[in-house]
Amino acid sequence: MATNQETSQPTLAKGTLGTTSIAFFVVAAAAPLFVMAGVAPLVIGFGGVGAPSAYLIAGAALAIFAVGFTAMTRYIHNAGAFYAYIARGLGSTAGIITAVVALVSYNVLEIGMFGALGQFTAGTVGKLTGLDVAWWVWALIGVAIVWFLGSRSIHVGSQFLIALLCAETGILVLLAGAVLIKGGATGLEASSFAPSNVATPSLGAMLTFAFAAFMGFESTALYREEARKPDRTIPRATYIAVAFLGLFYAFMVWIGIEAFGPDKAQQAANSDPAGMFFAAMETYVGSWASTLMEILIITSILASLLAFHNAITRYAYSLSRESILPRVFGELHPRHLSPFKTSGMQSLLAAAVVIVFALFRLDPLTQLMIWVNSPGVFGVVGMQVVVAVAVIAFFWRNRRGHSVFRVVVAPAVAAVVLLGALGLMTKNIALLTGVTPTFAPVNIAILAVMPITVVVGYLIAIRIRRTKPEIYAVVGQRDAE
């Protein structure tokens, strides 16, 4: 059993995860099959044949962000990730604010997805078996599954995610192979990447969805304490994750366009966005593959839920260990070495939200998923902007052997680009929520969540500085290795 020498208490299972396992955690959080089948048609509907390039642009921006982000990896030796990076670069107050924002962001990103899980499972089971089971029943079953796996060994969770992710990417690769072999609807061509089809008035709308599709890629750093050779494993996993997502998303969206033909793809996306990829699968592979994809989209969402659940529990564990959260959040299972009590409390919170939405008869997709998820998207991108600034501040007086490009230029470019992405998301909030006009009460409420969270985080930071100055002074600096 791994223990902390100072406290003789169990610690996270060190040396358990390799590069592949961590990369799988991150890619699974993004739910590639759900993004392609459920969201990409909306991007094609807005941008037409130029849609694939939006994912390449978002991926390139996040790769630039990763340059500076990974430079700090060897100096942050705990599971604190964003809040620890920001605390080391910009001070304890900024770090504590980020910790609060991170907890809220990852929680809403996960909890909202239970709406999608319930809706897709109810629809698929009903279609295949004739059983009419309410969406919220399936959502609560999902909560139980995620709790069970999340409270077990991280190794168990990683193997489960690898299996699910291979299945969901495999079905998409099957579709891609069939479209390529048959030459698409009108012959394969590359007009999707022509500048004239990319630089259009709809680029902002496309990028809004494209950046949201990468949610969770930065969570590689959360697994530092459980990684083998973390100084190498974490950077590699980060680059692999962002490269895979950017290239795979762009490739599969292009495949979707080629399946219908550049002239008809946008029309197909607008007429039936939810069925676009399923129709392509049925046409090019067969109805059995379309049915299989309906099943695998459920497991794709489940994998995403587990990945976000693990991220949440490790944030809470790190904050508890630094006495920012109560000690109970940091208690580990004596055998599984997992934050099992945090896992249980987070699952109870998710179940409570699902039950509330069910009691008020709110829609699991347009309301539970979209309304609850959207603040998390703003929170994560906002944290990425601040992390990029923190990297510059951390290395400003001493580059520690790194090049100017890696610790100044790249993070500065990333901060500007990500700030622009945040602005696009704010401008296009109605596209994310499906509620018009832009300044409808629902949209204003969603936009207000993160500013309110920042204020709450600031008040918590001030209280800790006044009442626990010894804790405030070392926020994010605990060396768990």
From TrEMBL:
It is found in: Cell membrane. One of its GO terms (molecular function) is transmembrane transporter activity. It comes from the Bacteria. The keyword Cell membrane applies. One of its GO terms (cellular component) is plasma membrane. Gene3D superfamilies: Amino acid/polyamine transporter I (1.20.1740.10). InterPro entries: AA/rel_permease1 (IPR002293), APC_superfamily (IPR050367). This is APC family permease. It comes from Gordonia asplenii.
